[in-house]
Structures are given as structure tokens and as C-alpha cells.
Specification:
This protein is of the alpha+beta class and 416 residues long. It has four domains: 53 residues; 86 residues, OB fold (Dihydrolipoamide Acetyltransferase, E2P); 84 residues, OB fold (Dihydrolipoamide Acetyltransferase, E2P) (Beta Barrel), CATH 2.40.50.140; 143 residues, OB fold (Dihydrolipoamide Acetyltransferase, E2P), CATH 2.40.50. The protein is 22% helix and 38% strand. Helix 1 runs parallel beside helix 3 and helix 5 crosses helix 6.
């Protein structure tokens, strides 16, 4: 910026007027850090650097200059603002990058917001369950979630008092990206798709459902299926228009002896089962607690190596096509048995007593379900519907014609 040298000179003269000589390079470095790295407006960056130098050299404040930003409630702060807040650190999480010294969530009586301390800020780390006043912090935004950035110009003041916090528990349907508290029932558990995941699935209340993830970092306890929990200060993240709750950032308390009516997922897919994908049919699962991953045909788990023991399971991974769009579906044991007319015990018997083994189970399942018209309902798990119930549908000549036209228009159809 053309005006930065003028601001550097103005700051330097203010400090020199108080009897201290300060390097222009030092002032420019502090100023550029705030402007370039933290996106602070030039006028606010000037106040931050001036006040920081005054504190560093133990000088008296400038008359009418610098000044303090008025303290704000957390619910009022907006991205792009320079703020002063007071709050309690309700959680501290593992930094995602070496460039970050600490991450966590800070809350007051009005709400909560994630905070980030940059490693190059050389700021003291915050203690969980302690109160602080943060002066001259910057509100930024990452993936649609506001957060507080603590930089070299931020003053961190520990507070002795411990005011009571009463987080507002909201319906799942009212959640938005940020930090939220809910009371929900654990209704569906999914197989983790990544080795960093400890547990994932669906939580629900009377208003709707939301996906959750519990990551392996830390010693957090897994949730118990069909149990009700009150969950405080968890990060709500958005990806491809879908919300997901990160349990590692908050705290969750089980409620003993209670139940909760849940509004089940309403995602639907209807059409013909056009394809059965890899992983369909009879599979083995890892017996290690909290794993449950599918084993290879040689009983190898992608995380826990070769397993002597295992658990049998039956599932369908497939595609439902209605002539206009194709939908990926994951159909677990109970529904897969009903659609294929093959029980888990039947499948095990075929695999153990037939030379073709697994392949024969898959062939029989394909013969039973491929080309059948169905209507399935369940929860959307990021582009794939985890099917809760599925029923056969009547033949629809109009839909069948659309499917034939779709096939004829495909590259495979053009070559025939």
C-alpha cells in the first residue's frame, strides 16, 4: 500500500515523542504482518501497533490516540472486525498445522466462537476452563465459520472470576455453521471411511438429523447407539451444502433412562437398481473394538492387519437410476436380506459349501435385485443414501422408456 510508509513514520514519531527511539523496519514489520497476514484494515492496524509498542516500552498511553475497542458480546462479532471480547475457554483441540500454536472454542453468555493462535504470534497458550479478555483480536472466516484470530498485537488478559455459562440448546434444524449445542439421539452408526475417524453416524431430534464425526485424536469415548446425549459447544461445519457436527471440539453428556422422538431422514431414491458395486454381498468385518472395517478376502484389515477372527455381514452397494439421475445407495443387512430374499445364514452357507464361494453369493444377489424397481428412504451421507427402508415398486412403462433412452444416449449405447 502506498500509505503504509506514512503510517510507519507516524507511529515511529509518536513513540519517539515519548523518549524512545524505535526502528522503522520494526514498525513496518509489525504493520505488514497485521495487514498482509491477518487482513486487519490499515487504520486498525495502526492502533494495534501503536498500543503494542507503548506496552512493550512501558510508556504512557497517547492522549486521544490508540484507545481500546469497546468490548463486544461474542454473538455480535462479524468477520473482518477488530474486536475485544471476554470469555471462557470451553475446549482446546489439537492444531491442524505446525503454523498454528493452538485452537479451541471460547464462549460467553451470548454464544461461542472458535479461536486460533498463530505460532508466529508468540502468544501464551490459553488454558481450558479459564476466563480471558482478548483485546485487539481479529474475526476471520474459514469455510463459512467465523473465528477469532489471536496475533502478535492481541493482548491476552487472564481473568480471575468464573461466571456461570448456560449454553443455549437448539433444535438440529436451527443449526448453522459455527458452534452449537443440541440434545439428540444416536440413531445410526456408519462404517468409518477414513482411518482417522473413530466413529461416525447420525444424530437426531424432533426437528431433524445431522451427521457427526468423532476423530481419533484424543481419548474421547464413543457414543452408544440408541442413547440420548446433550452435546455442548461442538463445531458445526459445512461441506457441499451439508452440515456435520465435530464431537471433538465439545463435550457430551449421556442421559440415562430417557428416549427421544426423532424426525427420520427424508431423502428418497426411486427407480431401478441398475448396478451392484464392489463390496456388495457377503463380507467380513474387523472384530477390533471401534473398528468394524470390512476385511479383504485374506482377512486383512486396512488398519489392524491380518485378523484371525471376524464378523460376517451382508450388504448392497449399488446405484438406483430413475431415467433422469443416478443415486448411490448403501443398503445394510436387514434391508439387503429383504430385497434379495437371502439371509446372512443362507449367504454364509453358500460361501462355505460352493466352489465359487463369495462370487456365487454376489451372483445370486445380482440376479435377485438388479433391474428391480424400488423406492428407498434414508439419510444422505455425502452423496450416498444410507438406506433405512426399501420396498419393491410397481413396473412403470414411462420410467422404463426413460431408462432405455438414457442407456441409448450413453457412450456404451452409441457403440452398440
Amino acid at each position: 500500500m502506498d500509505s503504509v510508509p506514512d503510517v510507519v513514520e507516524r507511529i515511529s514519531l509518536k513513540i519517539e515523542e515519548k523518549g524512545v527511539s524505535v526502528s522503522r523496519e520494526k514498525v513496518a514489520g509489525k504493520l505488514n504482518l497485521l495487514i498482509s497476514d491477518f487482513g486487519i484494515p490499515l487504520e486498525e492496524a495502526e492502533r494495534v501497533v501503536t498500543n503494542e509498542l507503548i506496552r512493550e516500552y512501558n510508556l504512557s498511553p497517547s492522549s486521544g490516540g490508540g484507545g481500546q475497542v469497546q468490548q463486544r458480546e461474542i454473538k455480535e462479532v462479524q468477520p473482518g472486525e477488530w474486536v475485544t471480547i471476554e470469555g471462557k475457554v470451553v475446549s482446546v483441540t489439537e492444531p491442524p498445522s505446525p503454523s498454528i500454536a493452538q485452537t479451541g472454542i471460547i464462549a460467553d453468555s451470548s454464544g461461542a466462537i472458535p479461536f486460533v493462535i498463530w505460532a508466529k504470534a508468540n502468544a501464551p497458550l490459553l488454558e481450558e476452563r479459564s476466563w480471558y479478555r482478548l483485546e485487539a483480536a481479529v474475526v476471520d472466516e474459514y469455510r463459512g465459520v467465523p473465528n477469532v484470530k489471536i496475533h502478535s498485537g492481541t493482548t491476552i488478559v487472564p481473568l480471575d472470576d468464573d461466571r456461570a455459562l448456560f449454553p443455549s440448546v437448539v433444535p438440529i434444524s436451527d443449526l448453522k455453521p459455527g458452534v452449537g449445542s443440541i440434545r439428540a439421539k444416536f440413531i445410526e452408526e456408519w462404517e468409518p471411511r477414513h482411518e482417522r475417524m473413530r466413529q461416525t453416524g447420525i444424530l437426531g431430534d424432533e426437528s431433524g438429523t445431522i451427521k457427526f464425526v468423532l476423530w481419533n485424536n484424543g481419548e474421547r469415548e464413543k457414543l452408544t447407539l440408541n442413547s440420548v446425549y446433550t452435546i455442548y459447544y461442538s463445531s458445526i461445519e459445512e461441506f457441499n451444502g451439508r452440515l456435520s457436527l465435530n464431537l471433538n471440539t465439545g463435550m457430551y453428556i449421556p442421559e440415562e433412562g430417557v428416549d427421544l422422538e426423532v424426525a427420520r431422514g427424508t431423502h428418497e431414491a426411486s427407480g431401478v437398481i441398475a448396478h451392484l458395486g464392489p463390496g456388495s454381498g457377503l463380507i467380513k468385518r474387523c472384530p477390533v473394538e471401534s473398528c468394524n472395517k470390512a476385511l479383504s478376502r485374506y482377512n486383512e484389515c486396512p488398519i489392524h492387519d491380518i485378523q484371525k477372527e471376524f464378523r460376517w455381514d451382508l450388504r448392497i452397494t449399488g446405484v438406483i437410476d430413475n431415467g433422469e439421475e443416478a443415486t448411490n445407495v448403501l443398503i445394510q443387512r436387514d434391508v439387503a436380506e429383504a430385497l434379495s430374499k437371502m439371509t446372512l445364514e443362507d449367504a454364509i452357507s453358500v460361501a462355505e459349501n460352493n466352489p465359487l464361494g463369495y462370487d456365487d453369493v454376489l451372483d445370486r444377489m445380482k440376479h435377485a435385485v438388479t433391474g428391480r424397481y424400488v423406492q428407498c428412504r434414508g439419510n444422505d451421507m455425502g452423496g450416498t443414501i444410507l438406506v433405512r427402508d426399501c420396498s419393491r415398486a410397481a413396473f412403470d412403462a414411462t420410467r422404463h422408456t426413460a431408462l432405455l433412452n438414457r442407456a441409448a444416449a450413453s457412450p456404451e449405447g452409441d457403440r452398440k
